Structure formats: structure tokens, C-alpha cells
Amino acid sequence: MPLLVPQLPMQLVVELINEWATTPQEVSTRPWNGYPGPDSAPRRKLMDIWPSSITEPDDRSIAHACDDVYPIFTAPWPNATANHLNNAIVGARLSPRVDAGDDSVHLHWSIEHPERLMSAMLVASLLGHVNQAPQDRFGTCESTTCADVLVDQSPTHTKHFCSPRCQTRERVRAHRSRGAD
User: Fold this and answer.
1) Phi, psi at residue 46, to the nearest 5°?
2) What is the tally of helices (H) and strands (E) in the chain?
3) What is the value of pTM for the model shown?
4) Radius of gyration of the CA atoms of the chain, in A
5) Within 10 A of 179 (CB to CB), how many other CB atoms are there?
6) Is the pLDDT of residue 42 over 60?
7) Handedness of CA 154, 157, 162, 168 (dihedral sign)
8) What's the start-to-end Cα distance of the chain, in Å?
């Protein structure tokens, strides 16, 4: 029996990847204190959506799923991103499923193997976001000390940093390097 894949809010997808994926932890100059605990906001939000009939994911499976989708954010927009999304659909073994109800037709994603649910949820959520907001660009922070993912929803699609903190850090670094000359 196919398992319907719930979609996550895009902000939660970003939080999960930034907290569990390997690359943001390796690049960051902030000390890594381990994965967020069971009472952390991202994990609570994930468990609120997670199907109760499926065993909750452990840190290793969340990290693996986040590492699988991280390259989608590093790929050049839009062509390479589309290719990565197509590969992720295959990798997560997602199947489209169309249901009718409430006088409308809805596209859902399903999987046959529950052990792929975490990856499937991330990929389905990214696909859902692209479908709703095709102009939003996926990317990573351009700070030299950060590799967090971001979704660029700015009007000009030129967002370079994941947060004002990273932007300020890079501006200060650039200013200081100009002053040293």
C-alpha cells in the first residue's frame, strides 16, 4: 500500500537542512553542539507532521536525508537545480498520486518504502514549493564561514546571505580588508 508523503513548510525544510546536514556544520566557524534535542523547535515541528504509524527518524536518518537534498541548494539556478530535483525524485522513489475531493483534483506524492520517508518528505516539500513559487531561487549563504541553505524570495532574486548576521560579518570583513591595503 503506498504511503502518502506529507509536505513540510519550506522554513522547516531550511531549518532541518541547516541543523542536520553535514556541510553547514563543517563550514561554520561556530562550535557545533550536536544535533538539536528532542524538544527543539525543528524536531517538534517535524514530529507534528510525521505519520504516527511510522517509526520516528533518528538523527542519523535525518542527517542522511538532509545531506541527500543539500546539493539541490548548491546547484546553479534554474537548470541544474531542476536536474537535481529530477534525480532526487528518483532517489527518494517518489511516485505521483492524484486524488479527487472537494470538487477539485490534488497531486500528492507517495512511496512504497517507509524507510525513505524522511528523504521523500524533503524532496516532496521542495517540489511543492517550486510548484507554488517557481520564481523563488534555492541557494546557499555566500559567507565564507557559513554554508546554510536559503530560499531567495526577494523581488530581485539576488539574496546572498542566509541572515543579516552573515551579511554584516562579510561586510565588516570586506571593510577591514580594504583598510589594510
Assistant:
1) -60, -45
2) 7, 5
3) 0.92
4) 18
5) 7
6) yes
7) negative
8) 66
Q: How confident is the model over 163-177, as pLDDT tens digits?
A: 999 989 888 887 788
d(CA 84, CA 176): 38
C-alpha cell at 138: 534555492
Mean pLDDT of 43-57: 96
Phi, psi of 123 (to 5 degrees): -65, -45
* Cα 90 → chain centroid: 17
Query: Whole-angstrom Cα distance, residue 96 to residue 128?
Result: 12
Task: Find, among 109, 103, 119, 6, the residue nearest to 71 by Cα.
Answer: 119
pLDDT in tens, 56-79: 999 999 999 999 999 999 999 999
Is 176 exposed, middle or buried (CB count within 10 Å of its CB: 0-12, 13-18, 19+)? exposed
